[in-house]
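Weekly structure sync - notes
Attendees: PM, LS, DV (DV joined late)
Agenda: review two folding runs queued last week.

Item 1: First target. Sequence and structure tokens pasted below for the record.
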Amino acid sequence: MWRRLTAIYVLLLALVLIALEVPLAIALAKQDTEQMTVDRLADAVRFATLAEPALRTGEISDLHAELIRYDELYNIGVMVIDLDQQVVITSRADFDALRRRPETRRRMQQAQELSLAGEQVGSQGPIWPWREAPLVVAAPVGSGGEVLGSVITVSPTERLSDRVGASWFQLLAVGMLAISAGIAAASSLARWTLKPVVELDNAVHRITAGHYAARVPPGLGPPELQRLTIAFNEMADTVTDSLERNRAFVAHASHQLRNPLTALRLRVEELAEELTTATAAEEHRLALEETERLGDVLDGLLALARAERGQHRRETVEASGVVAERIAAWRPLAQQRGIRLSADPTMPVRVRAVSTALDQALDALIDNALKFAGRGARVHVSVRPLDDSVAVHVTDNGPGLPDEQRARAAERFWRAPTSQNIDGAGLGLPIVEELLTASGGRLDLLPARPNGLDARIWLPAADPSTHPPGLHTTTPAHTPPPRGMTG
């Protein structure tokens, strides 16, 4: 942007210089031409005064000698003609050589006619640097209204053209120096003007990347932009403070919930002595596992709070094992609701993710599928390794979601119009998306075929080179996985 602003400043300066220097250059050419014309016309008048008695008496030897000396000294050809336009005297024997150019012959003929009519003939226009035609000046010979003849001088204009060209070159040099200085000044002014904008751009990108302490240095640029930077810094302080309060609340709440959860676990463990049947023992074991699961969820909330501050720590997770655990945990509820919950058997596949990110993502997606797929539906979980990532699909053959609803499904507190009476707060998918983003992955919500929803989790592979043979898809290593519709 500063280049465009500099170009505008320089263009304006160039237009001003053109508006000033072009008329000045023309005026200089006219001034030099007029000065030369006045000098030559004065010489022609002097020769006309000398020629009057010579033409009356016929004694032209002295005048002839004067014209020759003048021509030898100044290289200016002089010719005296009578009323019949016959040449009486010339300053050089080859005077006709001066008439070789058609333009010169035309001007000499015009000068002869006007001077014999009693008029003085001077310049017919300014001498330009590229003009090569000589200057023709004529004065009538005679007095008291009687014209006896005419004196015509033909002056070379090379020196005058060179002088005009030199003046124009000086003007051009001054203009170039002015433009050079203008470029430097305009560049400095543009940089100074746009410095706050550049700093604002940098600060916005740093804040977007998670560096919430980024601010714009004060006191840069013009007063209007200084006020803008002050307002931006105040806004950033307010937003950062709000985010920090929210994260502190999440972290504090997660920490405080661990104490009653620990007490609950102790009480559940004490019930083990009262259990006598194998079924009760199994239910007791599952209850203990779920208390441990709740503890992991609280740890995950703490990890999420740290992830939003850019302080998250990823770990290696065995995806197939997590899928098997979550299928076992949700199968009783699926059977109760008349839904078939299954998973493909796969060899171990490891991914990199924030603590409990995959667990919570699968819980949220399986929970949604069991809620909305309907009795008699089928929910299937599969793990598909790629060259540098792993896709975990939670697919159901329920009613699914229209495109516009799938686009909004990951918005916080959003719920489909047809699901308002079903338990939930509309936070499951937003939390999943936050955890996956912190893990370097993402969530895609795609339509299943022929009907239903395909919720696809993308996570980076822990070690792409160790994927089991035969599980790789045909996706090239340099091609990113296709994106679906995410909220």
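Item 2: Second target, run right after the first with the same settings.
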Amino acid sequence: MISLKTPKQINILREGGRRLATILQTVGERVKPGVTPLELDAMARDLIKQGGDEPSFLNYRPAGASGPYPAALCVSVNESIVHGIPDKRSLQEGDIVGIDLGLKHKGLYTDMAMTVSVGELKPELKRLLAHTKEGLRAGIAQSKVGNHLGDIGAAIEAVAEKHGYGVVRELAGHGVGLKVHEEPEVPNYGQVGTGLKLKAGIVIAIEPMFNLGAADVVFHDDGYTVTTKDKLPSAHFEHTVLVTESGGEVLTRS
């Protein structure tokens, strides 16, 4: 069942989203050659604790998972699309790193992700990051009362097709707020005018995932990590968004 958030809940989500965005931006600034994903996770945990909030991914067990997620932060490097479990590898110059974080503030959840560069990037990777951000903006613009979920997906897909990227279809955005994941599912592809009609008070996480190569993916045995089948890099950006009359209001903004 899709929940419409009350004005009181929306104000809590705004504050939680602001806190989350500030933390994730700070973690992103720490991404440099030689830093490990485990160090980034430790930093995210510490910053959330300092604010008196809780990391919503830590020990979260989604449907079908073999066990709870062991970290606060998802760290996905290069061909890893999403849900990379932090490890001891050292990040290298030229890598791209997806960092995805959820925060629980006063009982309500927000979700945000970005892909950042480790030092200087090749031009095609700079374009991949810029165009995936463009896809996110296109989806947010369609998040208005009276539109449909298909309008969001179609707008994101159009950006990917324009620039020649593979759009991941096995993974999607989702409702958020009362839970880490709730209805509706928000695909990154679709047809205009189809799917759920959007109402004021719906809060969704929009998260385009664009692959430099083909759209095909591989799900790994750890139950979380998803990578590109052709081992080419992938970018991921995400905001928690409130549906309004004029378009999506980004709640995860510092």
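Discussion on item 2: Helices lie at 7-29, 37-50, 123-141, 149-163.
Action: LS to circulate a short write-up before next sync.
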